[in-house]
Amino acid sequence: MVDPCEVAPRPPSPGTARTVAVHVGFACAYTLAVVVGRGTRLPGSTLALVWPAAAVAFVWLAQVWRDRRAVAAVTAAVAVLSGLLNTVTGTGPALGAVFGLANGAQAFVSCAVTHRLQTRAGTQPWRLRVPADLSALVVGSTAGAAAATCIGPLALLLLDGVPWTQSAGAWLLRNAASTFVFAALALRLGDRGLARTTPGPGRPEVLAAVVVVAAAYTVVFAQPQHLPVAFTLLPASMWIALRFRTTATAGHVLVVGVWVVTLTMAGRGPFSVGTPVTRVLLAQGFVTVVALASLVLALIRDDRLVLVAGLRRAQEESEAQAALLQTVFESTGDALSVFDARGTALLLNPAAAALFPYLAAGAPMERWSGQVQVRRPDGRPWETADLPVARALRGETVEPTDMLVRTAGAAEGLLSVGAHPLPASTGEHWAGGAVVAARDVTAERAAVARLAASERRFRAAFDTAPVGMMVVGLAGAEAAQILQVNATLCEFTGFAAWELLQLDVHALTHPDDRADCVSAFAPFLSGDVTQARQEKRYQHADGRTRWGLMSATMLTEAGWGGATGTGDEPYLLCLIEDVTARKAAERLLRHQALHDSLTGLPNRVLLRDRLTHALAAARREPAQVGVLFIDLDGFKAVNDAAGHAAGDELLQQVADRFSTCLRPEDTLARCGGDEFAVVCPDLVLSGRGQEETVLQAIADRLRECLATPFALTAGTYSVGASVGTTWARPVAGRDDADVAEAALAVADEAMYAAKRRGRVRPVPSRG
């Protein structure tokens, strides 16, 4: 099934509708022009004396000249319309068809020749702006009329017996004049890009011109006189051509042409002699002369005005450029001076006058060269013939060169001097003079030297610094990329310099800390942070963990004398101090502060901290925390019998045995001497009355692990243990640390009670 939307005709586009309307309008205008022209036939004749249709056909065809199909269609339309209208108005079918062919040929030839001549002359086609356009229009109109003359008059001879010479002359003049006069105005009116070349006369002059021209042409052509006074009208038409715009001149030619031909056909004016054909031919010839003279004069006037306007603009631009050049010459910071071929100073800008006070305009080289001493930067003298100005006077171009200059009463300064041969105004490369540009670079070169020395010092400090240093990019593709490292950083990380330059800064960080490193680096990228200091872990090339104190500062290339770039990109200078040994010492100190040095077990401080944390956990999730205090029985006897070394060895073995009897989450601590304590968090009670049973079971395991005698270096010995137990529970409104301390005291008291009862059975607290 076909969708009706697919076969429905599309409405014409606005451009298509406009094109159709234009062609319909031209067809109507052509029809009207043919009817008007056919109305000028003499009685008993088929030949019209005036043919405005030739101009309409010319303009119609010119509108579509770029489209070959449209050209063919319009040419055919002209031929068909002309043939039909001629037939209808009395020529007969045969003669009408021939006249149609002649008119179509005339339109095509006129347009082709005009377009060709305008294109060859380099002017824009279908315009009437310069004399070359007028020449193309006249030749094209004449060529088209000649083409039609070869067809129409021949048909009149063959079909009506009209002498060919008589009809050919009338046809040629009629069609050429009609095309030229009418088309000239049409081309001017259709030129939308036409610029006004004259301001135009005022209203009084316009009114005077209309009155004078109308009166003159009426007086000469409205009276039945035969005096040859038509030439007296030329001054009036020249007035129009010289004072009015070319479009107005073309309109004037058309109006007076119609007026002259009309009055002449009526038997009036100086051309009302002879036969009617002769009268009209004379009138058309007069109109052609007036049109040519007026339009040529107007277009030459326009061309001259355009040329004058162009020259005026060129003069204004030259003056503006000269003023600009003068401003640049006087305001530039460089000392500019101009010399003639003999080395005489011609021009100096203020900077040159200040830099060379001994150099004045008009001073020859012999005078000013003797007032200055010039040396090369290395101290060697500079010969006068080798000075930049002397070389430029010989036609050489001298690039800026440093030279030491000293004048009387002034300190020696370092100048950068360049010179160029003076170009000639004729376009030659060299006119014999020279232009010299100089500037004082003493301070600049000193600053560059200081900067270079500063950069060398920075490089030396960077490369030999006892701390690791690296430069990290912050912009574009270099963001987070390591750009420069020193030897200390290579030693700290275990990587070679070339290996580090392949990495980003995060790759050096310990894997567990990289996420934090990326987060800390982000504010540097956004510019929110410019400095940071942090202790962090780094991963050595061999897998070891190293600690470093990193200090990072954001700066630019100009601030650190870095590698390549514009000097505006931000960078990060990172100093990394190796603190691995300090961190290890700190860890050791912390361990020693919280652990027993003999057994390696937690001491009483760490035990109390673990018990405090267990109580805090019991507040969040109810659980039972048990505390046991242990005192070795028989330890003093071993110590007295075998010595303190044996006692220490016994304590170490007791610590090892106790550790095997406890859970990983339990804390075994040595509280001093032969006393130990245990914190058991998260104990599970199976029911009521199990509190003493659970702690007693733990105490029994501890005593049982002491049942086997201890093989010491000094011999085999046995010891027992007295154990005191208690439960530690959080107390509302009381600090967990205080509760922990109290629980340890209760367990300690229970342990002494056990000793007093026999040193074997554990004694639970009753608190």
UniProtKB/TrEMBL annotation:
Keyword terms of this UniProt record: Cell membrane, Membrane, Transmembrane, Transmembrane helix
Keyword Transmembrane: yes
Start and end residues of each GGDEF domain: 623-767
Entry's transmembrane regions: 20-39, 45-63, 134-159, 171-190, 202-220, 249-269, 281-300
Pfam families: GGDEF, MASE1, PAS_8
Keyword Plastid set for record: no
Domain of life of the source: Bacteria
UniProt-annotated location(s): Cell membrane
PROSITE patterns in UniProt: GGDEF, PAS
One Gene Ontology CC term in the entry: plasma membrane
Membrane topology: Multi-pass membrane protein
Domain PAS positions: 454-528
UniProt cross-references to SUPFAM superfamilies, sorted A to Z: Nucleotide cyclase, PYP-like sensor domain (PAS domain)
Main location: membrane
Protein name as catalogued: PAS domain S-box-containing protein/diguanylate cyclase (GGDEF)-like protein
Gene source species: Kineococcus rhizosphaerae
